[in-house]
Amino acid sequence: MKDTLRAATFLNKGGVGKTTVAAHIGVACARQGHEVLLIDLAGKQGDLAKQFGTWERYQQQIENDDDWPNITTVFQPEWPSIVEKLGDDVVEEFIIPTEEHVDIMPAHPGLDALDAELGNIDDASERYSRFNNFLDEYVDPLRYDVILIDLPGVTNNISYNGLWAAQNVIAPVQPATFGIQQLGELEEDLKRMQTQLDAEIELTMVLPTEVDLRTKLSDRYLETIKEEYPNTVAPLAVPESQDIRNAAADGHTAFRLETPSETAKKARRAFIRNSEELIQRLQEPERQVI
């Protein structure tokens, strides 16, 4: 691939599995031979770093005041001057490699204040394009094949920055009517951004997650998703699996489980197949946006 492919996991609700999806899709892409960078903009709690067992080490850096520059610094107007002073390789200093062959740019406590800081910028184009400019100028030259951005479960200035930069959205949805309603709200948000900011942002993949594949209710839910989003629904739904939650608590993805349950095996197959489809969709030269 000549250019870095980008996507963001986003839905205007917390607890729908955005971080789980970002981590597992990222590892699945890496298992296909792609160089992958995962970026956590979802909040100070550092869930993405926790998923890969690297949060405690980074938290120690924060406590020792050895955490500058970081993900929040790149949004500041002084960032180009910082790079000029510290050198072009400064970005690599806050990228953390993991044992699952993906790199992560972890969240930082400063993200909490960042949303308000961005809100003080009057020009909308300037307010929402800062992260895109950072990726264009300082991350793309690192030659990653795929960048996945984990966004907050709320529509704010940080999530708008991530959406603008990614231009492609992976929307995890859980098997409930409310989940389908949220997809409709997401589409309206993306249309609004396209109109107001002249930004092309596409709902690239609707990914049903935590689905109990044994029930008729889940079957009906999946059929509804396929009917309403026939061109964007992922090839395979990700089944509900306690193994995935246990793996996250232990600091790794389900791909590192030595004795996975049947649901975990199905989830891994789903993530691999969906990652293949995601790469294909991101590589298409012309796709119809919402």
What does it look like?
With 290 residues, the protein is of the alpha/beta class. The chain has one domain (5-283): 3-Layer(aba) Sandwich (Rossmann fold). The chain contains twelve helices and seven strands. The longest helix has 22 residues, at 262-283. The model has no long low-confidence stretch (mean pLDDT 91).
Summarize the structure.
It contains twelve helices and seven strands. Helix 1 packs across helix 12. The chain has a seven-stranded mixed β-sheet, with helices on both faces.
What would the CATH topology be? Rossmann fold
> Termini distance?
25 Å
Average predicted confidence as pLDDT: 91
Strand proportion, as a percent range, falls in 5-15%
Return the structural class.
alpha/beta
With strands numbered from the N-terminus, the spatial order across the biggest sheet is: 3-4-2-5-1-6-7
H/E element order? EHEHHHHEEHHEHEHEHHH
Low-confidence stretches: none
Count of structural domains? 1
- Quick one: overall form? globular
List descriptors.
single chain, 290 residues, alpha/beta, Rossmann fold, 7-stranded mixed beta sheet, 7 strands, globular
